[in-house]
Amino acid sequence: NVSIPFYGTNQAGILTPPQNFICFAAFDLTTTRVEEVSKLFRVWTEASANMAEGRMVGPDNDKPNLPPEDTGEAAGLNPNQLTITFGAGPTLFDERFGLSAKRPEAFVDFPRFAGEKLRPEWCGGDIGVQVCADDMQVAFHAVRNLARIARGTAVLKWTQEGFQRTATASNSGETPRNLLGFKDGTGNPDTNDAKLMNDLIWVQPSDGPDWMRNGTYMAVRRIRMRIEVWDRSTLKDQESTFGRYRKSGAPLGEQNEFDPMRLDAQGPDGSPLIPANAHIRLAHGEGQEKILRRSYSYSNGIDLQTGQLDAGLFFICYNRDPRKQFIPIQQRLAKNDALNEYIFHMGSAAFACFPGVRQGGYLGEGLL
Ligand code: HEM
């Protein structure tokens, strides 16, 4: 099947197995009228539902004296599993639109995390849109047309493209590897377990507010890898940094990728096999906080300030309450993670992702 339904209880692109490519877009609103924001979401809803089915964004594409409604580069292409996932940024709840009383309690600003080197041009946004597809041209087309529709109401603030190994490069369904060469995604919760997803991802009626019910919170971190430094470190160092073997992806001391980590396992000298500051050990903590990671690799050419590759992980995760899930994990990692020698966070954004849309409804209904 080449298409993923746009309409449903939850937005697509969250539990959806990650497609090959991402084109992420953060928008800032230029209007100050909440009715215009609401109108934008209505038009975006229809355009997105059309694109998810491989149709043109609108009907007027053949009038010689008008610019075509759809920009055309996806004409004749199948939708390639296109998903378009929308969320509201914290700034949507500032004084401009009178929405501050509707800001969810769980949707707090992130604290400053130790060691981050955030650059404003990679941060924030009134609206976040995660576009994923198995074809980059299809994904780009979606972002471009959303931006075109928004003209006069919202402008792009930043965008980031990303990739993983494609399905044609590996037909075995193996966990993809990140740019540090390690399998990434092994420890994710099981997205087929509906009860677990209600526990960890979807906002429940008791959580409030009503307009977020069946929605979720997205955390985005643009994380640069110091690739040149990593490439000079030994295999043993690399493996103790993560706490897993590079080849198999198994936790240190174990055989297979999906074997549970044994935190009490010791080496011959009595020291823990998985070091106290290993990434998986710290990220796991006491096993209290869990998130659904849905990250992509990125590569943006050379950082002109340093002459080094601007490449890394475009980290995205979903959780039901960032105060209890993403934030405590990231606080532990920021402080002590062995990986910090090889990475730094240069972008950050948070979005409250709307519930899914029913046929006839629109994104953000209940809020806008
Ligand atoms: C696990 C890589 C940043 C949270 C892992 C694993 C790798 C990895 C290779 C082991 C395999 C797996 O379970 O997927 C990276 C890299 C990062 C990064 C390269 C930055 C460039 C982060 C951040 C967070 C995070 C920012 C959250 C704040 C986790 C969690 C696990 C994990 C929760 C699973 C731990 C468990 O098994 O319970 N990561 N990660 N990671 N990572 Fe990261």
TrEMBL record:
Its main location: other. Its cofactor is heme b. GO terms for molecular function: peroxidase activity. Residues 54-78, 166-187 are annotated as: Disordered. Residues 175-357 form the Dyp-type peroxidase C-terminal domain. Residues 11-164 form the Dyp-type peroxidase N-terminal domain. Keywords: Heme, Iron, Lyase, Membrane, Metal-binding, Oxidoreductase, Peroxidase, Signal, Transmembrane, Transmembrane helix. It comes from the Bacteria. Its EC number is 1.11.1.-. Residues 166-175 have a biased composition (Polar residues). Involved in the recovery of exogenous heme iron. Extracts iron from heme while preserving the protoporphyrin ring intact. Belongs to the DyP-type peroxidase family. This is Deferrochelatase. It comes from Paenibacillus konkukensis. The lineage of its organism: Bacteria, Bacillati, Bacillota, Bacilli, Bacillales.
